[in-house]
Amino acid sequence: MTFGHEGLVAIGGFFGACARYGIGLWGKKKFQARLPVSTMLINLTGSFLLGIVAAAGGSGISLLVGTGFMGAYTTFSTFNAENIQLWRSRAWRTLAIYVAGSYILGVVLAWAGYALGGRL
C-alpha cells in the first residue's frame, strides 16, 4: 500500500460520510416513520453501488469508491443500534421488517449491482 492508496480511501471516505449525513438529515425530515427509513435507504443503495464497483472497478476505483466512499456511506453500526432501539421499545413488527428487509434486499441489490457492473 502506498500513500496514494490511503489518499484515495480518505477522499472517498470524506465524501461518503458527507453523503450519509446529508441523506440521513433529508430522510428524517421526509419520512416520519418508526422504521429507520434513512439508514435502510443508505444501506440498500450502498449494497447496490458496491456490487457495481466490485464487478467493474479497477484497484483505484475500488479504493476510492468501494473502500472509501461506501465504507463511510453505509452504516452497519447505526443499523444495529436502531435494531436495539426497536427491540427495547418492543416494536417487533417494525424490527422484523427492518432486519429482514435490510438483509434480503441488501443481498438482492448487491447481486443486481454486481450483475450490472459485470456488463460495464
UniProtKB/TrEMBL annotation:
Main location: membrane
Gene: fluC
Annotated family: Belongs to the fluoride channel Fluc/FEX (TC 1.A.43) family.
Protein species of origin: Cohnella hashimotonis
Membrane topology type: Multi-pass membrane protein
Regions that span the bilayer: 6-27, 48-75, 95-116
PANTHER family: FLUORIDE EXPORT PROTEIN 1-RELATED, FLUORIDE-SPECIFIC ION CHANNEL FLUC 2
Regulation (activators, inhibitors): Na(+) is not transported, but it plays an essential structural role and its presence is essential for fluoride channel function.
Catalytic activity: fluoride(in) = fluoride(out)
Protein name: Fluoride-specific ion channel FluC
InterPro entries tied to this protein: FluC
Subcellular locations according to the entry: Cell membrane
Residue numbers binding Na(+): G71, T74
Alphabetical UniProt keywords: Cell membrane, Ion channel, Ion transport, Membrane, Metal-binding, Sodium, Transmembrane, Transmembrane helix, Transport
Keyword Plastid tagged: no
Biological role stated in the UniProt entry: Fluoride-specific ion channel. Important for reducing fluoride concentration in the cell, thus reducing its toxicity.
